[in-house]
């Protein structure tokens, strides 16, 4: 999802990504994809191979905790790289910090109560894009925000129709994701 957010921002709100330019976007997107998708996916696959988790679906609340903390650590690594090694824009640092905080909050809440990580993730993206649209008036994120709101509703509905979560779990994930991500960009950019 982070790679998608970066592509959307590059296409519709390029001023939010400065100093990233056309020459460096591909290498940064590749790094983001590897650290935030490929490595976490491989880690969860390894947890399944070693029988640390019983299913890739992570249906059991207790089995979700370790993978969520692993993923949060990978996102924290991304924040570290962006802050101290690559020295990229403040927007990206806050954006990835917000995603990291959202994943950590989902992991912490999951220790007590099952929450929809799908809802937190998609509504987090919606919150990020909406707050960037507000903070960067020259951005053209109206249609991507509209599409993300529609997609967020569809994902929430699918989690309910598949009986993967209760309405309370989906709502909690939605509020947690949107609130954390929207608030981080709105308050710190």
Describe this structure as you would to a colleague.
With 189 residues, this protein is mostly helical. Helices cover 76% and strands 0% of the residues. It is built from 7 helices and no strands. The protein has helices at 2-12, 25-49, 61-85, 90-110, 117-135, 142-161, 167-188. The model has no long low-confidence stretch (mean pLDDT 92).
What are its keywords?
single chain; 189 residues; mainly alpha; 7 helices; 0% strand
Q: Which term fits the overall shape?
A: globular
Q: What Rg do the Cα atoms give? A: 16 Å
Percent of residues in helices:
over 70%
| Average predicted local confidence, pLDDT | 92
Strand fraction equals: under 5%
Find the count of extended strands (DSSP E, 2+ residues): 0
- Output the number of helix runs: 7
Task: Please give a quick description of this structure.
The chain has 189 residues and is mainly α.
Describe the secondary structure blueprint for this structure.
Elements: H1 2-12, H2 25-49, H3 61-85, H4 90-110, H5 117-135, H6 142-161, H7 167-188
């Amino acid at each position: 999802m982070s790679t998608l957010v970066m592509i959307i921002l590059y296409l519709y709100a390029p001023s939010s990504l400065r100093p990233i330019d056309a020459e460096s976007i591909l290498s940064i997107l590749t790094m983001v994809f590897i650290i935030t998708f490929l490595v976490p996916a491989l880690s969860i696959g390894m947890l399944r191979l070693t029988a640390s988790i019983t299913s890739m679906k992570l249906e059991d609340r207790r089995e979700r905790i370790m993978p969520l903390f692993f993923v949060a650590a990978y996102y924290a690594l991304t924040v570290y790289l962006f802050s101290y090694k690559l020295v990229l824009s403040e927007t990206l640092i806050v954006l990835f910090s917000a995603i990291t905080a959202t994943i950590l909050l989902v992991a912490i809440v999951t220790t007590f109560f099952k929450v929809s990580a799908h809802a937190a993730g998609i509504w987090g993206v919606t919150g990020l894009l909406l707050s960037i649209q507000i903070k960067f008036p020259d951005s053209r994120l109206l249609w991507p925000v509209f599409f993300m709101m529609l997609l967020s509703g569809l994902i929430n509905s699918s989690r309910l129709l598949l009986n993967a979560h209760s309405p309370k779990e989906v709502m909690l994930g939605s509020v947690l994701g949107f609130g954390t991500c929207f608030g981080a960009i709105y308050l710190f950019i």
